[in-house]
Design a protein that fits this description.
Blueprint lengths: L1 H24 L1 E12 L2 E5 L10 H8 L9 E6 L10 H9 L3 E6 L22 H14 L5 E3 L17 H11 L7 E4 L6 H8 L2 H6 E7 L14 E5 L11 H16 L4 E6 L15 H10 L7 E5 L7 E8 L2 E8 L5 E8 L6 E6 L6 E5 L1 E2 L2 E6 L3 E6 L36 E7 L5 E8 L3 E5 L12 E10 L4 E10 L1 E6 L2 E6 L11 E7 L4 E10 L4 E9 L2 E5 L5 E2 L19 H11 L9 H4 L9 H12 L7
Helix pairs in contact: 1-10, 1-12, 5-6, 8-9, 10-12
């Protein structure tokens, strides 16, 4: 009886402690006098020839701020065949009539202008520079003009479709010579992985820099990161998980976080890949997806001409906020990735706030409107669990698109056929963390959901130094389809990988993480079978990061997701004993609660606190440890 009374009292204390401290931390400061990047807009691509053109109804859903998503950027393709150009005009005109800007990218010059006489691969011949500029300029005229044009899409990768393979110097040479003659301002060089080294080398050509109005790139294979090339930075292509329907709410919340990250990195533009696609903002049947509604939170309300302003990026755990002003109007976009409601207080300076309207999208509602009241220069907003909310001051209330019923995913046949994909239900890999670089002095054991860590110059845990540590991850990997996978490591410093007891990557050297230092290997896997996987990593000194990707014909390059990784259980003898005193008691429960709200001592072992083995430490773990102490549970995981 005594233990159960203690459990009840301590459980109440734990919840109270977390609530009090968490609430105190949820304050965001907005300073409208600190003006950041200019916002060009949010958009997506309509690539005629690879996908059907949008219908008239699709164009309303795409670009209308009252009946649709409100996209303010349309990206189109400059076909190497001039006979294709006129087909773009209807959608371009619709975008313009709704106030959107139009940007155009070329994947390849006509074959006759290239070194291999083919629209796939090859380089642009130097003696074709003037002819290619005329080609681009004629496209601009044929479609009634565009706001900016890119002479080459993703020049830094080799692919088996329409493309050109050009170095940064090659792209710069063309733009330096002919950039002023292409019919529209230049955005470039559009590298595949927003490679700053590629961009910097391109801009080192003074002629190219002079003829370039906007720097642009794509964030495939990387994360949004801030850099200042001295002009606007545009993110002109990316999508999240082509294997998952755009109505999947977890995926849509990942899109919300990506949009936040791009804005927080200082980008002036965000452009999704296909506008109309089952995994994108508009479904194949012509309805707005959840991903589309998430994009609307930015596109509808953060209109071209706005500026991002200073705002606390993460006022609480898993809550992310950005703020914008356009004249005297304030717009705040808040993403809550917690499962429960978070209330955030916004303190604003440099701008008066009044007439605040909120729009909220969750798994069950789309752009649901509400209102909040300001008290002087502050206002508080309750953000539902797993939601995105936009707060608008000083403006009217646009009408809301009709909610849609998530339709079934449809996949067109391709050649070769795309293998059937089967999602898994994994929980991540077992990580063993060692002091020193030789994997011998074990310090910490925990479950890591995926291998996508960037500790910069910090460490994985307070019990581990920021330099000279190593990690071994073990468990099982399950393929989503029957095919050959490319496994890719990107790390600072060394990594090596074994699958099915065969080493496929051995990169055990000190080096920075970049596209140039990535290493890959291939392995054939089948669905329905789990293969042993072992990944080892060491950090010498300086920055530390680990990323483990895969790609295949049916799987766009991505971090290997938690769903496909299966861990062995953390040794039971370690779990729960967070202070390593040999016993599990109420002290361990309170320490875990303190860790959750950021008050744990340096001796705290987060790996032992994750007693439900889901890769995170939260209030549930604290309560489970308390339950273990009083005998209500007899094991963890």
């Amino acid at each position: 009886m005594y233990k159960k009374q203690v459990f009840t009292v301590v459980s109440v204390l734990i919840v109270f402690l977390c609530c009090v401290i968490d609430t105190a931390a949820q304050t965001a400061t907005i300073n409208a006098n600190t003006v950041q990047q200019y916002i060009r807009g949010f958009g997506a691509a309509n690539i005629i020839g690879w996908r059907d053109d949008m219908t008239a109804a699709d164009r309303i859903l795409a670009f209308s701020v009252t009946e649709g998503i409100g996209l303010s950027v349309l990206r189109v393709r400059v076909s190497p065949n001039s006979a294709d150009w006129a087909s773009n005009k209807a959608s371009i005109d619709a975008a313009k009539s709704n106030g959107a800007m139009v940007i155009a990218s070329a994947w390849s010059a006509p074959a006759s202008m290239k070194t291999n006489n083919n629209t796939t691969g090859g380089n642009l011949k130097t003696d074709s520079y003037a002819a290619y500029a005329t080609h681009l300029r004629d496209f601009c005229s044929a479609v009634g003009g565009v706001d900016a044009i890119s002479p080459i899409n993703e020049p830094n990768i080799t692919v088996d479709y329409e493309s050109m393979e050009m170095s940064a110097s090659d792209v710069a040479s063309f733009v330096a010579a002919q950039g002023a003659n292409c019919g529209a301002p230049i955005f470039a060089p559009e590298p595949y992985n927003m490679s700053q080294s590629f961009i910097n080398q391109y801009l080192s050509n003074s002629g190219a820099r002079s003829n370039t109005k906007y720097v642009a790139g794509h964030i495939y294979g990387t994360s949004p990161s801030a850099f200042d090339p001295g002009m606007e930075v545009w993110m002109t292509e990316h999508y999240v998980d082509s294997n998952t329907n755009g109505n999947d709410w977890n995926k849509s919340m990942n899109v919300a976080k990506e949009l936040h990250d791009c804005m927080n990195a200082g980008y002036s533009m965000y452009v999704w890949w296909y506008i109309k696609r089952y995994y994108g903002p508009i479904e194949e049947d012509g309805t707005i997806t959840k991903t589309g509604y998430v994009m609307a939170h930015y596109a509808r309300y953060v209109r071209p001409g706005s500026n991002k302003i200073s705002c606390t990026a993460s006022p609480a755990s898993n809550v992310y906020t950005t703020a914008y002003k356009n004249g005297s109007n304030l717009v705040v976009v808040a993403v809550n990735r917690n499962s429960s409601t978070s209330t955030v207080t916004f303190n604003v300076s440099g701008l008066s706030v009044s007439g605040l309207t909120t729009y909220t999208t969750t798994s069950s509602q789309n752009l649901a409107s509400g209102s909040v009241s300001a008290s002087g220069s502050s206002f508080s907003v309750s953000l539902p669990g797993s939601s995105i909310t936009t707060i608008v001051s000083g403006g009217g209330t646009p009408s809301t698109p009709d909610p849609t019923t998530p339709p079934q995913q449809t996949v067109e046949p391709t050649s070769p056929p795309v293998p059937t994909t089967v999602p898994g239900s994994g929980n991540g890999l077992l990580g063993e963390y060692f002091s020193g670089t030789d994997l011998t002095n074990l310090v910490l054991t925990r479950i890591d959901p995926s291998l996508d860590m960037d500790w910069v110059q910090g460490s994985p845990d307070s019990s581990i130094s920021s330099d000279n540590f190593s990690i071994r991850w073990t468990g099982k990997i399950e393929a989503r389809s029957n095919e050959t996978y490319t496994i890719i490591t990107r790390s600072d410093d060394g990594m090596r990988v074994w699958i099915d007891n065969q080493q496929i990557i051995n990169d055990w050297t000190e080096h920075a993480a970049s596209a140039d230092t990535e290493v890959s290997g291939t392995v054939s896997m089948q669905t329905g079978r789990q293969y042993d996987i072992r990944v080892e990593y060491f950090e010498g000194s300086g920055e530390a990061s680990v990323q483990l990707y895969w790609s295949a014909h049916s799987v766009t390059r991505q971090i290997i997701p938690q769903s496909q990784l299966y861990s062995e259980s953390v040794p039971q003898g370690n779990l729960g004993d967070v202070n390593d005193d040999g016993v599990i008691n109420i002290v361990d429960a309170l320490l875990t609660a303190q860790y959750y709200v950021g008050l744990a001592p340096s001796s705290f072992d987060a790996g032992r606190a994750d007693v439900d083995c889901n890769g995170t430490v939260n209030i549930v773990d604290a309560l489970l440890i308390a339950q273990y102490y009083v005998g209500l549970v007899d094991s963890f995981c």
